[in-house]
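Weekly modeling sync, notes
Attendees: AB, CL, MP (scribe)

Item 1: holo prediction request
CL wants a bound-state model with acetyl coenzyme *A before deciding which constructs to order. AB pointed out that an apo prediction alone won't tell us much about the pocket. Agreed to run with the ligand included and paste results into these notes for async review.

Input as submitted:
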Amino acid sequence: MTDTVAPAPAEATAARPYSPGLEGIVAAETALGYVDGEAGRLLYRGYRIGDLVERGTYPAVANLLWTGEWEPRHHLPTAPVPAAVLTALRALPLTAKPMDALRTAVSVWGATQQLDWPPTPEQARALTAFSPSALAAFARLRQGLEPVDPDLALDLVPGFLYQLTGNFADAGTARALDAYFIVGAEHGLNASTFAARVITSTRSDIASAVTGAIGAMKGPLHGGAPSEVVEQLHKVGTPEHAEAWVRDAVARGERLMGFGHRVYRAYDPRAAALRKVAEAMDNKPDWLELAIKVEDVALRVLAEKHPERALKTNVEYYAAAVLQGVGLTPDLFPATFALSRHAGWTAHVLEQAGANRLIRPDAIYTGPPERNLPA
Ligand code: ACO
C-alpha cells in the first residue's frame, strides 16, 4: 500500500465559515421568541413580555407558544406522577441535585408514554404538566415527606406550590411565581433550546428532547446564578449598609450579581416585569425593600465606574428575589428555571418538527493526514 496524500485539512474546509460556539450563525427560523438586546425588548409571538406578565398566566403563555392562540383563561393543572417515575425518584440518593432528579424523572416519564412522531401540542401539554409534580415529589421525598397528589382545580404554578408544601399559597405568592414562570418560558435559540431542536431533528421524541435540554441547562454557563444574588443580599444585610457594601465591592473589582448582560444593553424587560409583580404583592416580604435599595445604589455606582458600557439590572436579580420570597430553597432555583422553560422547549420541539431538517453541522478536521498503521 502506498501513502496517499490527503488534502491539507485546513484547505479542505477553509472556504467554509467557522464560528466557535456557532456565534453569529443563523441555525433556525422561529416565530416564537424575539430578543432585542439594544432596546431591551422581549416578545413572545409578537407580544411584549411586560404585557404577558400583567395580563396572562403561565398556562395561557405556554398555550400561546404551542398554538399561536391567545386564550387568557387557558387552564393547565399539574399532572399525576406515574408509578415508575416515583420508584425512580425514591431510588435516588437524598443528596441528588434537583436538576438531576428532574432530568431522570422526564426520562422515565418518556418511557411510560406513547410518544409518536410528530410531537403534538397534547404531548407538550402533558410533559409541561408532569414536570412540576415530579420536582415537587422529589423535593418532599428528600425531606422524608410523602409526595402530594395534584389538585386539578389549581393552575400549574399554584399547583406546583401546593404539591411542594402541602398548603395552598396565597394569591400574591402564586402570582409572583407565575410571573417568574412567564419570564422564564422562552428566550430564543439558547443552548438548551438548541439542544432540544437538535434531538428533535433526528425524529426522536419530545421527552428525549427535554431530557437533553435539562442536561444542557444544568451547566453553570447556562442555568444562571440567582442563588448568588441571594447570597449577595445576605452579605449586604440591611438597606442602610447598601451604599457602603456596593461601593466596597465595586472598588475591589468584584462583579455585582444580577447586573450586566451579554445581550441586553438596556434594563432587562424580564427584571422590570418581575420587580413590578414583587412590588404588587400584598404581603411585601422584607427582602424586597433591601433588593430595591441595593439595585438603586448598584445602578448608580456601575454607571459611575463604567460610563462607556450600560450595566443594568438583569433577570437574575428579581428572579432571585421572587424565588426566595415565595419560599423556595436556593438549591431548587435551577430546576424551577427548567420547569419554566418547558413551554419554550416544547414549543421549539413542535416548531422544529413542523419544518424538520436533520441538524448536522460540519467540523474542520485538524488531525494528521491519511497514513498507514505502523507495521
Ligand atoms: N458588576 C461589575 N462590573 C461588571 C459587571 C457587574 N455585574 N458586569 C460587567 N462588568 C464590567 C466588567 O468587569 C468589564 O469591565 P472591564 O472592561 O473594566 O474589565 C465590563 O463591565 C464589561 O464586562 P464583560 O465581561 O465584557 O461583559 P459580558 O457581556 O461578557 O458579561 C455578564 C455579561 C457575564 C452577565 C456580566 O455582566 C456578569 O458577570 N454579571 C454578573 C453575573 C450575573 O448577573 N449573571 C447573570 C446573567 S443573566 C443570565 O445569564 C440569564
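Recorded for review: The first strand starts at residue 33 and ends at 36.
Action items: CL to compare against the apo run; MP to circulate these notes.
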